[in-house]
Amino acid sequence: MTEKEEQVYKILLTPIKCDKKVSKIYMEDNVIYSPQLYKSIADEDMSDFSVGFYKIIYEDLLKNDGGEILNEDGSYKNDNYMGDTIHSFNSLANVILGDKSQNCRSPKEKWPEELIEYESKYHCLANFWVIPMCHGRRITEFRSYDSLDEYLNKVRTGAINNAKEYFQKFTYESFLEIHGLSSHKILDDPLKIYRSKDKKGCIDEIQRIYDSWNKRANEIVKKYKTELYDYFEGLGLIN
């Protein structure tokens, strides 16, 4: 990688914290802090910093909406194009900790180091994408256990019947390409570790997720290094 590519790559993997009380996007102690225009609770994958990222890498998808995700009042332009987390936290944590749900979360002092580290890292641009709201921000059967592989299987086989306007724009291969997932390989039975409550399998999945972020960040850098470098530099995130 060139120095410019390395700087963009690093920021794609830098943790993000959304805080509606801050007035601008800035970095402190290797965490990027961002305000949020979007009318909702503070949520990193719809923070102002993330929305600016989507407007760059999904420029072609957003053309009919003037290149925007949000209206000036913070409402969304099109519910087919909403930011969401690709690999989430709670489904993995529930199995690893033996918890029933995020509402019954074990105290953090009982968490293994792998889970503590993952929680601190998973809100980053390399783990954010734009998909229909009905598949991401509203939990449905299409995101079983928040599994990327299970979702991609449904996209590949045409098993998704809603959000047709969104999926008419893609072949499966172009869907992977536009999301920076061209090198992603789907597991044969991606939900097995969740169904069988396989704690070790879920810890191993965390490493597989890190590998996925690295590959996606590399793919995004190759396509958008100049645009993203200019975006990050303009925010003062690159010295």
Please describe what this structure looks like.
- The structure is a single chain.
- With 239 residues, the chain is mostly helical.
- Helices cover 41% and strands 8% of the residues.
- The protein is built from nine helices and five strands.
- It has helices spanning 3-12, 48-57, 90-97, 113-121, 148-157, 164-167, 172-178, 192-195, 199-234; strands at residues 16-18, 26-28, 31-34, 82-85, 128-131.
- The strands form two sheets. A three-stranded mixed β-sheet has the order 1-3-2, with no helix packed on it. It has a two-stranded antiparallel sheet with strand order 4-5.
- β2 and β3 (31-34) form a beta hairpin.
- α1 (3-12) crosses α9 (199-234) and α3 packs antiparallel against α9.
- The longest helix has 36 residues, at 199-234.
- The chain is globular and about 45 Å long.
- The two termini are 18 Å apart.
Helix/strand layout:
Blueprint: H1 3-12, E1 16-18, E2 26-28, E3 31-34, H2 48-57, E4 82-85, H3 90-97, H4 113-121, E5 128-131, H5 148-157, H6 164-167, H7 172-178, H8 192-195, H9 199-234
Parallel strand pairs: 1-3
Antiparallel strand pairs: 2-3, 4-5
List its traits:
239 residues; mainly alpha; 3-stranded mixed sheet; two-stranded antiparallel sheet; 41% helix; 8% strand
Bulk shape: globular
What radius of gyration results from the CA coordinates? Answer: 18 Å
How far do the termini sit from each other? Answer: 18 Å
Largest beta sheet: what is the strand line-up?
1-3-2
Number of DSSP-assigned strands = 5
Q: Structural class, from helix and strand content? A: mainly alpha
Range of helix content? 40-55%
Task: Return the string of H and E elements.
Answer: HEEEHEHHEHHHHH
Give the oligomer, counting copies of the same chain as homo and different chains as hetero.
single chain
